[in-house]
Model the fold of this input.
Amino acid sequence: MKSFGYAAHSVGSPLEPFSFERRDLRDNDVAMDILYCGVCHSDLHYVKDDWAKTVYPCVPGHEIIGRVTEVGSGVSKHKVGDIVAVGCMVDSCQECDQCKKDHEQYCREGWTGTYNAPDRQTGDLTQGGYSNNLIAREEFVLTVPDGLDISKAAPLLCAGITTYSPLREWNVGPGSRVGVVGMGGLGHMAIKLAHAMGAIVTVISRSPDKQKDAEALGAHNFLVSKDADQMAAYANGFDLIIDTVPVKHDVNPYLPLLDIDGTLCLVGQIGPLEELTTPFMIRGRRRVAGSIIGGIKETQECLDFCARFGIHPEVEMINIQDINTAYERLERSDVHYRFVIDMKSLQA
Ligand SMILES: [Zn+2]
Ligand SMILES: [Zn+2]
Done:
């Protein structure tokens, strides 16, 4: 299938228009026109080869909303015209214990990324959603429920599920005390989702000037982490802290904020942290954990949950031609809170 999008061609080069081929439709495949694609911080990491695994040219994008244009003969889940979504994964082994538990994100063989990953059958490199169309096997194509505004829903496919999954895993519900560190694409979704689940949500931030925005997103409390008195007052005050900071940082100041058996879950930084010290972990069975996206079943649950509660990411719509400027702004954290590319602009 002929495809057209924007790709990075080498380390540090800007994204540029790029024509390429996608695989032909298989029996279990769904083809779609892409309507919207969110801009994730990992896209930027891939473009810059921060994780030393980028194969160029690379078409990023794994927060995809599309309309089905064609389905393979064996497809039963979707039909032409359906509004669908694809997140970070387009395949996994489907056989291992984790896949069988609907945890494809922990597939023993590793999941196939929506971009920059070898296709499990041909080995051809997958290419992502900054493009006009996509093909993926039906199991990895999600249903966009009525009630979601499709122009805003794309970030649910990565930022949304990345925070939804740990909130569910640690049984957040009415009265749970949830802290959120970092208030970007992931953090703002953590606030909205935890609030909708009935939790008491506190944003933990260095800068007091973010308090208004935090409250507007649904936070009940605001804790300034530079203020030692405030930090002391919150000792043992959280069941779960979702840490969305995407760079190397120090988590030690947050550990005394956890109650006994509390968990700090890292979802942002894939890489080193400042050195961990253990006294608060050992003297309170406090845990430092991590979590990545969510399984397909759970991602569908996240979409359905957001439709039911009217939860949408806060997005800034851009044209594909503005993507390089958007990346510069993303690096400065200058976005409230997620860029979404309107793929109509690709035709321009
Ligand atoms: Zn992402
Ligand atoms: Zn598997």
User: Anything to note?
Assistant: The radius of gyration is 20 Å. The chain has nine helices and 17 strands. The mean pLDDT is 97.
